[in-house]
């Protein structure tokens, strides 16, 4: 198949505006600065979550450093009534949706099982099982479709997750039933140590969508304005009954896979240095400065807010008591099954918590 996908880019790596016209939007200054603020907060909270893990306060953490533009751009353009189905690396998506850093921290501490109440903000709990949330997202979007709601569902997956059978089944259902869902794939070049070249034999991830009859677009995932514009258009099409879109956002995971990983064992430092030159926040800051939107005052205000949020996160997470172990069983189904009740009782007896 011909390589017929241009990569949509509105802001070049040096912060200058590109000549792209089709996706250009005249966003108001307050939206431009809000996107900047969300990206900076995402990076700062990400650092604090890593610190908390290193200090033994979190069990694990998967950093989104380098992916702030993709996540913030894709989530910030949606309505609060739209549904989000995250994988696990989506801190920028969570913050854009108003989920607090403390709520994210308690998920990684293990004191709030997978974030079951993310649903209060129309966001599904995180999915550590790669791709398992894809049929869930499509099913939820089909339910909304049948209920006559005008919500759109955004499904966030990594390049690795697209190789799972679940992802392909979800794409097929989405296509056949013209489901109002957007597949937003963050191609961060690697799935733990497996490079994206091992995930497909096609020209790109986006090319695979054609086999399902799903329109696809590739976007510079380090360009927040491009991600915002591409996602807005896909969401609008879905809302108007035009069915699913597959978006491949080209980005890079700057940190390790998780705090348990050592990426120096499988990727050269030169790759990391190359992508550091395409940093999504530095590029957007340069663009905003030349547009007169980013002033010293704004940058100080955002830095101050980030510092306060980091302190609040630490205060909220450190020393949180372990949850009641029985909650693990109570939150699987709406009503606990007899078999799960039996397992729960057996565990409590074993732990000496119940006679
Ligand atoms: C079904 C399943 N198989 C294997 C794993 C182990 N695993 C965890 S993350 C990961 C790679 C995920 O890569 P990708 O989808 O590209 O997302 P990224 O971590 O790069 O954001 C793997 C293989 C898993 N969590 N679930």
Protein described:
- The structure is a single chain.
- With 355 residues, the chain is of the alpha/beta class.
- It has two domains: 7-322, 3-Layer(aba) Sandwich (Rossmann fold); 324-355, no CATH class.
- The protein is built from 13 helices and eight strands.
- The chain has helices at 29-54, 68-76, 91-97, 101-109, 133-146, 165-176, 205-208, 224-239, 269-276, 280-290, 296-317, 327-330, 338-350; strands at 7-8, 83-85, 153-158, 181-187, 190-191, 194-195, 216-220, 245-250.
- The protein has a six-stranded parallel beta sheet, sandwiched between helices.
- α1 (29-54) crosses α2 (68-76).
- It is globular, with a radius of gyration of 21 Å.
- The termini are far apart.
- The model has no long low-confidence stretch (mean pLDDT 95).
- The structure holds thiamine diphosphate (TPP).
- Thiamine diphosphate binds at residues 89, 128-130, 158-161, 188, 191-192, 253, 257.
- GO terms for molecular function: magnesium ion binding; pyruvate dehydrogenase (acetyl-transferring) activity.
- Keywords: Oxidoreductase, Pyruvate, Thiamine pyrophosphate.
- Residues 37-303 form the Dehydrogenase E1 component domain.
- It is an enzyme of class 1 (oxidoreductase).
- Its cofactor is Mg(2+); thiamine diphosphate.
């Amino acid at each position: 198949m011909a390589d017929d996908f241009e990569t949509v880019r509105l802001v070049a790596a040096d912060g200058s505006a590109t000549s792209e016209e089709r996706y250009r939007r005249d966003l108001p200054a307050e939206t431009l600065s809000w996107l900047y603020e969300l990206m900076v907060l995402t990076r700062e909270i990400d650092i604090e979550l890593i610190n908390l893990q290193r200090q033994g306060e979190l069990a694990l953490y998967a950093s989104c450093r380098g992916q702030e533009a993709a996540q913030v751009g894709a989530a910030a353009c949606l309505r609060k009534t739209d549904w989000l189905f995250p994988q696990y690396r989506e801190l920028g998506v969570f913050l854009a949706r108003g989920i607090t850093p403390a709520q994210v921290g308690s998920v990684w501490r293990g004191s709030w099982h997978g974030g079951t109440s993310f649903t209060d903000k129309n966001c599904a709990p995180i999915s550590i099982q790669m791709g398992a949330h894809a049929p869930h997202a499509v099913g939820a979007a089909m339910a909304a479709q049948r209920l006559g709601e005008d919500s759109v569902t955004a499904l966030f997956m990594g390049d690795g997750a697209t190789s799972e059978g679940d992802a392909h089944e979800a794409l097929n259902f989405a296509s056949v039933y013209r489901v109002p869902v957007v597949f937003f794939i963050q191609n961060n070049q690697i799935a733990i140590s497996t490079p994206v070249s091992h995930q497909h034999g096609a020209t790109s991830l986006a090319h695979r969508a054609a086999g399902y009859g799903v329109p696809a677009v590739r976007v510079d995932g380090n360009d927040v304005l491009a991600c915002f514009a591409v996602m807005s258009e896909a969401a609008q099409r879905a809302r108007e009954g035009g069915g699913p879109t597959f978006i491949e956002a080209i980005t890079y995971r700057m940190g390790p896979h998780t705090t348990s990983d050592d990426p120096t064992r499988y990727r050269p430092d030169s790759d990391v240095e190359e992508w550091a030159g395409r940093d999504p926040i530095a590029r957007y800051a340069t663009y905003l400065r030349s547009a007169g939107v980013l002033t010293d005052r704004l940058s100080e205000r955002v830095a101050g807010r980030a510092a306060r949020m980091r302190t609040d996160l630490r205060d909220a997470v450190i020393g949180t008591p372990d949850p009641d172990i029985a909650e693990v069983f109570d939150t699987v189904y709406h009503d606990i099954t007899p078999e799960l009740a039996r397992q729960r009782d057996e565990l409590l007896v074993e732990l000496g918590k119940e006679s």
